Amino acid sequence: MAKERKAFPLRLDAELHQALERWAADEFRSVNGHIEYLLREAVRRAGRLPGPKPNPSLPAEESDN
């Protein structure tokens, strides 16, 4: 069974949205998918999601590898 997904409106500054569009394109994601990815990573790194905790002794880029 698929997870239920919550839809809600999000207002962004035009400059931020353009930056997200470029970044998402670089990662072959939609803007919506990339925002969800970024939020999930931030929440995970903050220890707010169940699962493995990031190693605080490693920089963020290295702890994911």
TrEMBL record:
The lineage of its organism: Bacteria, Bacillati, Bacillota, Bacilli, Bacillales. Transmembrane segments: none annotated. This is Toxin-antitoxin system HicB family antitoxin. SUPFAM superfamilies: Ribbon-helix-helix. It comes from Cohnella thailandensis. It comes from the Bacteria. Residues 45-65 are annotated as: Disordered. One of its GO terms (biological process) is regulation of DNA-templated transcription. Signal peptide: none annotated.
